[in-house]
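does this look right to u?? G3I version
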Amino acid sequence: AGTLGAQAAQSGRYFGAAVAAGKLGDGTYTGILDREFNSVTAENEMKWDATEPSRGSFTFSRADQIAQRAQARGQRLRGHTLVWHSQLPGWVNSIRDANTLRGVMNNHITTVMNRYKGRIHSWDVVNEAFADGGSGQMRGSVFRDVLGTGFVEQAFRTARSADPAAKLCYNDYNIENWSDAKTQGVYRMVRDFKSRGVPIDCVGLQAHFGAGGPPGSFQTTLSNFAALGVDVQITELDIAQAPPTAYANTVRACMNVARCTGITVWGIRDSDSWRSGENPLLFDRSGNKKPAYNATLTAMGGT
Ligand code: G3I
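got this back:
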């Protein structure tokens, strides 16, 4: 096939992009989106600060815009994200009572998931809970500090009840290199969840890479997680300077792992990227395909 989404679909995978509601009026942007991608992630609109800016008061207008537009065009939806220490409103950050915070977290998960129930193929239930560096432990956050590390399990159990059809993912960055302590920490958590029957279906590897692309162990990491009995997904791919080989290596690793079910790039044109200075995406500022686009399509077997 001649587009990313159609080619990925030939092996039962999706190829998605992060989308910003504020750009849906830009015809160049939506032209590429609708031509190339068959899955959509809201870049910011489903996060806590956007959906529940004050306690118990939910706003879904911008998230709905993205969801309805995708649905009308037959594009699948990824949910991002329910529990994250960042883009978290101040009122949540200042809760110190465990029962209160547990109730607030469960209510947030349930309300947001209910809104899109049955329409989201995979949800990032918990995002970026592990610390950088060598500890292999969870990072400090209001959730860990007030509820303990068990907040992750609590979140996944609540998510399963809210929308049993959605794949429940743990999503993080810098877990692509197998030997890193952070990767090992996440691996141990997923292994523990699977062994105790805590509901988890997927690990999202963000894949924000430097110009060298994925570490040599990337495919090993994907297979090792998959061997625990979860899907893996590349959820936020971008690569500094977008070298074609770096993109091809990333995509090939996913294609080589049966349980790698899809890839999402974190934006459409370089100008849309959170790291736009590094030109890390598949389309240039005018919306033209870059060499990395062809490398990506070819790596999936398309032309
Ligand atoms: O909406 C406000 C606007 O009202 C205000 O005037 C403006 C002034 O700064 O800020 C706007 O909010 C910005 C928001 O993006 C929407 O554009 C925030 O400042 C800005 O911090 C925010 O950045 C997002 C970032 O997450 C926040 O952590 C990026 O767009 C988004 O690409 C990025 O995505 C994250 C993933 O969710 C998780 N993994 C890492 C990834 C990259 O950081």
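The longest strand covers residues 231-239. idk if thats expected tbh
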